[in-house]
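Worked example 2:
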Amino acid sequence: MRRAPLVLAGTALGLGLLLTYRTPQLASTAAAASSVSGGSTHSAGSSTAGSGGAGSGSGSGGSSGSSGSTGSSAASGSAVGSAVYNGFGQVQVKVTVSGGKITNVVAVQLPNGDPQSASINSYAAPQLAQQAMAAQSAHINGVSGATYTSQAYAQSLQSALTQLGV
C-alpha cells in the first residue's frame, strides 16, 4: 500500500517526459504568406513547399485608404501572420480585429505530420486562441505540453497584429 504514491509520482514523471521528449531548435521563417484584408494593404507570399498550401491569396484592392474615415484610429480588419517554424512544422495564425479589439483568432496552419503533433495541436489551438482574446494581445501564457506551438503561435499572432497596426 505504500507503493501507491510512488506509482503515481512515476506516472506523472513519465507523462511529463513523454510530452517533452523532443527538443527541436526553434527557428522562424518569413517565407510564408501574409495578408491583410479590410485594412490598408494586401500582400501575398508563397508558401513553403509541403506546408499545406496556405500562403497564396488574392485581394480585392490594394488601396492605401484609411479604415477610420470618421476620425477613429481603431484598427479593423483581418490579417494572416507570418508562418513560424516550431521544429515540427509551420504555425500560422489569422486574427480579426474590430474597433481595435481582437474578435477572433484561428490557426490556419499547425504541424500535424505525426499523431503526437496532431493531438497536441488540436488540444492547444483552442486554448491559445482563447488566451489571445482574453489578453487582447500576443502576450499569452501558452499551453503546458505545447511549448513550441505556443511560442510560434504568439510570434505569428504578433506578426498579424503588427500588420493591422494593433
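Strands lie at 35-37, 77-80, 84-85, 90-98, 101-109. The helical segments are 4-19, 115-135, 147-164.
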